[in-house]
Every structure is written in structure tokens, then in C-alpha cells.
Amino acid sequence: MEKAPLRGELLVLDESHWVADPDRGHHWARLLLTGEYREMHLISAAEAHPLLAPLVDDAGSVDVVTHQRLSRLDVLRAPVRTTGVRPQTLVVAFSRKTVYAVAAELDRHRPGRVGVLYGALPPATRREVIERFTAGELDVLVTTDVIGHGINVPATTVLFAETTKFDGTELRPLRSWEAAQIAGRAGRYGLTGHGTVGVLTGVRGLKPSTALVSLGAEVARGDRASDLPRRAPRLRPELADLGALEAVDLPEALVRWQAWARAATRDEAMTPDDVTSLVLRVQALLPLLRGPLGAAGDLHTVWRLVSLPIDYDPPRRTRWLVLARAALRHAAGLPVAPELVLPDVPVGGSVEEYEQAAAAARDAQTLLRQFPGVAGLDDDDAAWVEEECAEAISELLPDAIAVSRSAACAECGTAIAPWFSTCRPCSAPRGRGPGRDTGREAARGGRRGPRSGSRQGRRPTRSGRG
Fold first, then answer.
1. Basic residues composition bias: which ranges (predicted)?
2. Do residue 45 and residue 98 come from a single domain?
3. pLDDT of 406 strictly over 70
4. What is the dihedral of CA 434, 440, 442, 444, to 10 degrees?
5. CB burial class (10 A; 0-12, 13-18, 19+) of residue 191?
6. 128 and 52, same domain (yes or no)
């Protein structure tokens, strides 16, 4: 969405109900309000029609077409245990740790035939995992709700291992529209026959709600309206909206814009975004502009930096500031160490280490597309690092699943909920008894470390990336 052009002949806009999302909704709203297209096709949940209609009321004509699901979606009457999971099944959990714990439990019964899919995996790795599941090389795919975002695979069954998720603020039950998006992956028309949805039991600490899953299936079939949040579409300012003359004016201009926008949209079908994160980014950059970097920190450069789609939530905030400072140094003609912008490929690292390096490479790509040449790099160099990390992760995933300790204490091996690493007795600050030491040693003896590879962490040169 962030990369969509603002003009063209035909725009097909999927997941249009995201126009109300607090973080990304302003991209949908801006495109619908200002996009110059001869024709637009908006695809969304039916409940989003009141949100979308005001954004396109200046169109020459608006046709509303309601589609019904073309394949059956049934709810399993009984929970499915880990021993009874069949091929072509998606199992859903909502954190990386829980995904691996569930995958490890299932891998005991289907060795080497279980895959994982979650947001931190590089896109290339995600594509490979999806292709392997589609080709039948994997029987089961344990996935987060990333599977509900437009990914179609030949899955006959979706099983929820849990029905609560942490949304960045609180741990809460899934909303019915979230459950519906995931449940609807079962039995996709043209890929499989009819689909079934249910819950998975047998993983300690996970207690999915059958009632919530049934409700999600009803919404996915179109039998019931969802509880799509009643938010208004989001509006975020562009630089031309602010009236700022210099970078130092931006914090006050942003606050002034937000106050104006709140008043202007009070009786309208829009709501202004909270611009606090933009203000904080500007305030973080302004001290850098008082020294040698000041000449490079013109208004447009600072706005481009604060608008980079790089996560600003801790602990990623430091990463954005490092990249922004590197761009300013480059613009000022000062040297920038390449490793500040683009990390080396880890050597013999774990899956998580490769994931972190790939994420840093994606951030570098984002910067280098806007500011090519920083530290003598371009976005192809960053893409090379990400691809290398993705290849390493693909090689390590089978072993990472097999050696994961499924819902077990890392110290003594006692069964625990997957989001804990140690049981209550082992985490208590008290002396160790002989029995506990023996249990720990046994647990350690049964674990295999991640396979170490010979991959070299060489940075690509400008003449070639061999």
C-alpha cells in the first residue's frame, strides 16, 4: 500500500477496511481521497462500506457488489489433538515463541513435515515456506495471523491453537473479523474442496475458545456481521499541509495541524492521525543539525527522514536514528561506516540472529531507496544481505523446529506454557537441590544446538556480490 502510485488507469485495492487502522490506515485514505484513477475496485469486509463511501462520494458512479463465499466452511464438533492433525492443515498461534512450541509438538508426530510462518521471517523465506506447503512437501503449517492477510494456500483445515493475541497494548481475545480472516483460509475456492475450522488441544498453556472460532466461521461464511472496529478513516499530513519554512518549525507545525484537523473533522467521516511519533522523530533529529550536519538538514530532507516507514517503537527507535544520522552525514560530505547502515551476514548464527540481520537489511533498503549512495551502498546491496539471511533461515528452519522445546522448562524439562522459558520453581531465587541439578543436566543433554553453517558474512562489493 505504501508503494502504490497516486495515478493510473485502474486501481484494485484489497483489504480496504484497513483504512481505519491506527498505524497504516492513512495510506488507504490518502490514496482514495487524492488518487487519480479512471476506475477503482475496492475490496473489503461488507461492514466497511460506511467507512469507504464518504471517501469516494465524488466518483462519477459507485456500484456496490456483494459477494458470497463460494465454498463450504464447517466447524469441527470436537477439538483436534496434536496426534490427529491431518495434512493440508494450518495451525494458528500468535507469537513467535508459541509458533515454535506448537510446531515442535506437531513435529514429533510428523517429523520434517511441519513448517512455520510468521512476520519476522524475511519475505523470501515466507514465499519458500508457502511454496513447500502448496507443493505438499509440508503437511502442516504453524502460522501467526500473517496467514490471514491475503495468502491463499491449499489448506482444507484451519486449527486455532490459541484465540488470544497481544496487539501491542494488551493481551485480548480475537475479534470476530480477525478470526474470520484466518478461518476463511480453509477450503479456498479453486484450491481445495470445502473447508473445516476448529481448535487444537494438547499444547500446555493454550486454551482456544471454540465459541470464538465458531463465530469467526459464521462471519467468514457471510452468515453474521463482524465486529469490525467502528473507527473512522485516518488522515495524516503531507509536508505541503504544514506551512513550515524550516526543519525547526516542524514540531509546532505538526501540533498545530493536529489541532486544526481535529476541529475540521469533528463532524466528518475522517479522523486525524496522532502525529506524536513524527514530532518525536523531528525532536530527535534537531540536536544533530546544530553542528556540521546542519547544512544537510534542510526542511525537505528532514521530512523525508521522519517519514521513512521504519519502525520507531523501542527498541527499533535507535536503528532509525542511526540510519537518519548516516544519511545526514553522507549529505554533508562526511564519511559513513558501511556497517552502521548495513550489517554483515551472521556466520553460523541462529534463526533469530538471521531474522534480526534481515530486518536491519530491510531498514537499510528503505533508507537507500530514498538516499542512495550512503556509505557507498545502494538498495541492491541491502537486498543481497537480506537474501543471504533468508537462505540461511530456510536451511536452519527444519532443525530449529525439531530442537525447539515444546512447552518445557529450559532448566528441568517440566511442561509449562510456551510463553515461559522456565517453570516457577526453577525461576525462584533459592538454592538448588541435587534432584534439580540432575533434571537440569538431563534437559541440557537432550538438546541439540542449531546447526552451524559455513556461510561467510562478507559484505557485497560494488563490483559484484559473489
1. 445-466
2. no
3. no
4. -150
5. middle
6. no
